[in-house]
Amino acid sequence: MNYITDDLPIVACSTGLSENTAIGIIRLSGFPSLDYLKDFFKINISELEERKATFCNLYFNEIVLDEVVITFFKGPRSYNGENILEISAHGNIFNLKRIIESFVASGLFRLASQGEFTYRALLNKKLTLAQVEGLDALLNASSSLMLDQGLDLLNGKLYKRYKELSASYLKLKSAIEMNIDFMEDVGEEESEKLLKDSVSKLSSIIESLNKSVSISSKSLMSPDVVLVGEPNAGKSSLFNLILNDSRSIVSDIAGTTRDFITEYISLGTNTFRLVDTAGLRETTDVIEEEGIKRSVNLLDEGFFKVLLVNVNEVDDFKFSAIKDTSFDMIIFTHVDQLTNKVSVNELSSKLPQATHYYVSNTSSKNNNSELLEVGPMGPLNNGPTGADNSGPIEPLSSVSESGPMGAKFLGPIEPQSQTGPIEPVAGLCIVSELTKNVVSKYQLLKSSDPILISRHRIKIEEITQVFSEFHHNINNLSDIGIISSESRILEGKISELIGVVSPDDVLNNIFSNFCIGK
What we know:
Strand content: 15-25%
Distance between the termini: 15 Å
Number of domains: 3
CATH class of the largest domain: Alpha Beta
Largest sheet: 6 strands, mixed
């Protein structure tokens, strides 16, 4: 790294200096022996036992700075391969800063640069580049999936996939060399078979890795649950119900929400951003038009997409910007205000595609309304459904082809009330169904072993492209020498992925995310 030019002993706070805490840990690294620290302690520091906590006073210029607990990790059996002393001190920010400044003022230590402790671990081969990136992901994760990815890299699980890629490439390279230098000894038929088999194996591994980067990383690292629909479809009411708070203004005046509103929610073990958007409609109002444009952009990038539609206004739904969008849920609202019998098939045929369909009342005042009734796939049965039959209608879901399902209304979304106002008990059903579907989709994507680290994704995409060109050449060129030359390009890309090649700009980018004491 360009800004690290020496191997002097370093000092930093590993627990951060942003606020007062009960305990703060100061880390010293790179000192030649424990005797180097004798001026800071009155105990016999040279006889300090490895990996054993010791209580003592910390001194500077014969003045007690603090009562501390110290732990010694002797190199190379330490985090970064160097001698390390960890000092657990009282976590007042001023106290920790004073201790660090005292070590620097002694002239025996300098302040560590960002990520320098881990950089030294990389130099001393205590960590691979992939493990360093895993630590970066672990320390800066904003989702449970990123935490898991960081741990997988740190413990070498993902790195094993990369080593398998490297080993498979080496077999391909050996097969190419065999065709150049030893064909007469091995035989042309056997040489060609070895080459074909090695190409096939490498192709399979690259295809598997490419699938792991084909999923949008943003969808997994910062997943948005986006609610869209025309004005007064019930978006803000549902938004408030999910939050159990009147966060979004609800009114019977169309177009109340003119910009998107967001809140973070925890579903399962992950955090999602819930987005209430501006009502979708054609407008000449410049401000409203900008809000709608932003809504459409959020929808395009959203992880879980929900369309709310007033069941009485389906025929008027003409917003072309989302007609090709595939939704995760479509919720038909205001169902208790229906005047004619309809089927979900008929309604859905006029709207964008969706995975799940649900219905919702707007109030519980009219229990005798003729509402949608659940039946098997195909046209739904006509006839009234009593108020006791409440729950999701999901017969048209591509993942729910079996029916009939018990009808249970999820009611009521009613824009006149500021609190939501889906009926307190029954209304919670729609939230539980949405939660179930969001978590289910997220878990399904997690099961595909996605790779989220940006550098890895880029390198795997480059490897896929280079291998595609190499594969084409190997099938169309008879000159094995040219094929051998082309394979070196692939070798370079694989080396960059597994960290054999470590350009300074890559390292600078990684370590810039680390805190000073890591």
